[in-house]
Design brief:
mainly alpha, globular
């Protein structure tokens, strides 16, 4: 069973993109690039901050 978490090993800011990359089996760099594009077009920064608050750290899940 997959669990969504903030990555502690593959993180730049809060580890949200690294955790999403692990969850979906995609390179975290692609997730980060997509997040930058979303941030430029809309409320991506707010969504990132909310995800950083809501999604638990890797050590809390595993």
């Amino acid at each position: 069973m997959k669990k969504l978490y903030r990555s502690e090993t593959n993180s730049m800011l809060a580890g949200v993109c690294g955790g999403l990359g692990d969850y979906f089996g995609v390179d975290a760099t692609l997730i980060r690039l997509g997040w930058v594009l979303i941030s430029l077009m809309g409320p991506g920064l707010i969504a990132y901050i909310i995800a950083a608050i809501i999604v638990p750290k890797e050590s809390e899940v595993i």
